[in-house]
Amino acid sequence: xxxxxxxxxxxxxxxxxxxxxxxxxxxxxxxxxxxxxxxxxxxxxxxxxxxxxxxxxxxxxxxxxxxxxxxxxxxxxxxxxxxxxxxxxxxxxxxxxxxxxxxxxxxxxxxxxxxxxxxxxxxxxxxxxxxxxxxxxxxxxxx
Amino acid sequence: xxxxxxxxxxxxxxxxxxxxxxxxxxxxxxxxxxxxxxxxxxxxxxxxxxxxxxxxxxxxxxxxxxxxxxxxxxxxxxxxxxxxxxxxxxxxxxxxxxxxxxxxxxxxxxxxxxxxxxxxxxxxxxxxxxxxxxxxxxxxxxxxxxxxxxxxxxxxxxxxxxxxxxxxxxxxxxxxxxxxxxxxxxxxxxxxxxxxxxxxxxxxxxxxxxxxxxxxxxxxxxxxxxxxxxxxxxxxxxxxxx
Lengths: 143, 242
Description:
The complex is a heterodimer. Chain A is an all-alpha fold. Chain A has 6 helices and no strands. Chain A has helices at 3-10, 18-40, 46-64, 66-76, 81-129, 135-142. In chain B, β1, α1 and β2 form a beta-alpha-beta unit. In chain B, α1 (16-26) crosses α4, α3 packs across α6 (164-172) and α5 (131-148) runs parallel beside α8 (213-230).
């Protein structure tokens, strides 16, 4: 064991203070209330709200039972509980952002197809009305 | 053969009528469709006056989506062959007729018009690109050839002809971002016969190229990622069905 790890082992574990826990709990509750309000006003669809609600619950749990967070921190091999907390939150947000990109890509593809269908419909109508219509096709039908 | 020639156009009111007239003269048997990609000028009206069908996209969707609209129309309306060319007057319609000949003779599923007669060079007698463009051409040429193990010279050419197999494939799977290059990779991967035919192209009739050096670099970078990812896409046509 080298000097650095020795020194690190001697330093006490860093935990959340009572003050932090209270603030976190209040914020979690406020956040969940906000999510509920957004659903109530039809600003947020239920299927998108689940993940935010679960996040709020997670925050509340973390504030209420700091032992949970310590367990997670130990499992991650992190001494500082705050670092564990930040890492988890960061990963969560990263995953969520990726999920939104996937959703956006799908919706962009859907919008494109919708636009194409509309354009095709209009072209089809012109072709059938015969104004600039399908010369080759008409000739073929007549023959 | 029932043929559709389609022209993707975005704010090309100055040149579209001439292009349509040219196609009419060179390929009289074909039906003509202009895909108006959300133009804010008189492109759609000019095209209609010139006697083409117009498929108006309600908002600008990019070249890939516009081309896909053309392939979709050709597929659904039962055309046996289709071709497309740029709306800015760079592509002589007589050369498009030459591409269609390859489709009529069933020598290829997809035919690309290449402005380079000499495959070793990034320029031709009537085409002298800038340095950044030349680098881009070289890079894409190298990597597309590596990815497909088939020699391509003009990877971003917008002058092509295709049969129904290609229409069916491109109307379902056509990248909106990097249509030209990825579509070649896709077609080769799916076992289609892709052929390049040297053609004559003209200098741009109007407007300036959108490429600055920085944009070129970004364009090349994006293209390489697209090619790399494309190599790992699942194939849809099984080897046994080819």
